[in-house]
Amino acid sequence: MLLVSYDISNDKVRTGFSKYLKKYGRRLQYSVYEIRNSQRVLKNILEEIKLRYKPKFTKTDSVVIIPICETCKKRIIRFGHLVNEEKEVIFFE
Predict the structure, then answer these.
(1) Helix or strand or coil: residue 70?
(2) Cα 79 from chain centroid?
(3) Residue 78 and residue 76: Cα distance in Å, rounded?
(4) How is the beta sheet containing 62-67 ordered, strand by strand?
(5) Residue 13 burial (CB count, 10 A)
(6) Rg of the Cα trace of the chain?
(7) DSSP-assigned letters across all residues of 1-44
(8) What domains are defined for the chain?
(9) How far apart are CA 40 and CA 66, in angstroms?
(10) Are the beta carbons of 12 and 29 closer than 8 angstroms?
């Protein structure tokens, strides 16, 4: 799993970056995404940032990508609506 956090001042660039990340994961907070990780996904995200977004960044913009190992993932404590996001749901018809 990856946590991606960003602080981008330009509204258009920030919106585009957010929509891009949404393809790979889910939004946890306004500028934080949780992405299910694979080396291919990480490579794609890094390339997209370098080629498409980095040239548009100002000196105050930032993106942080934090890999979370499987052991650490099991130790994450969640509160609020995210508590239910990790539970499996069974539907009966």
Answers:
(1) helix
(2) 18
(3) 6
(4) 25-29, 32-35, 2-7, 62-67
(5) 18
(6) 15
(7) -EEEEEE-S-HHHHHHHHHHHHTTEEEEETTEEEE---HHHHHH
(8) 2-85 (3.30.70.240)
(9) 16
(10) no
Q: What is the per-residue pLDDT across 14-62, written as a single tens digit (0 to 9) for each?
A: 999 999 999 999 999 999 999 987 889 999 999 999 999 999 999 999 9
pLDDT digits (tens, 9 = 90+) for 75-89: 877 777 666 665 655
Query: Residue type at 73?
Result: K
Q: Check if the beta carbon of residue 77 is closer than 8 Å to that of residue 28.
A: no
- What lies within 8 Å, CB to CB, of 39 at 6+ separation is none
Which residue bears the tokens 């930032």?
Answer: 62
Residue 17 in contact with residue 50, Cβ under 8 Å?
Answer: no
